[in-house]
Amino acid sequence: MASGKADTTQTNTLKQAEDEIVAILKSVLTPDVSLGAILKFVHPGAGVVVVDGRKKPNEVHRRDVPADCTVHIDPQLNLAILQRQVDQNTAFRQGRIRIVGDVSVVTRLRPIMLRRANAEGARD
Question: Can you list the residues of the chain whose pLDDT is less than 70?
């Protein structure tokens, strides 16, 4: 029985990380920026987060749809990368991230995230 409780706690932790990922993506993908493609994050044990950058404004949702680029990543690692606590290039080299499809789509997200970080740094 204890295992079931641990599994539920882990699932809740993963879902919370995914909730934070959605909130971050919605905050950075303002109407003036566009990925121009569909980017999907597959989070084992949690679900998916999709950025539909073909729509104006970008739409962030959790429906599993076909994507131009799919990133397979642990949701907690994804959150740490988006919060700039972990370097995405290092995580990729370590084999902790798998990308399928057009890699250029996910690389378009980096300058958007950096712009957000720079804006936050200016406010501190």
Answer: 1-7, 116-124
DSSP letter, residue 81:
H
What number of other Cβ atoms are within 10 A of residue 85's Cβ? 9
Domains of the chain are 2-123 (3.30.1050.10)
* N-terminal to C-terminal alpha carbon distance within the chain: 47
Q: In sequence order, which residues have a C-beta less than 8 Å from that of residue 28 and are 6 or more positions away?
A: 112, 113, 115, 116
Give the number of other Cβ atoms within 10 Å of residue 11's Cβ: 12
Residues 44 and 87: their CA atoms lie apart, in Å, by 20
Q: What is the per-residue pLDDT for 17?
A: 93
pLDDT, tens digit, 9 for 90 and up, residues 73-90 = 999 999 999 998 999 999
Rounded to two decimals, the pTM is 0.85
* Measured distance CA(103)–CA(97) in Å, rounded: 12
Distance CA 75, CA 26 (A): 16
Angle at 44 between CA 11 and CA 10, to 5 degrees: 20
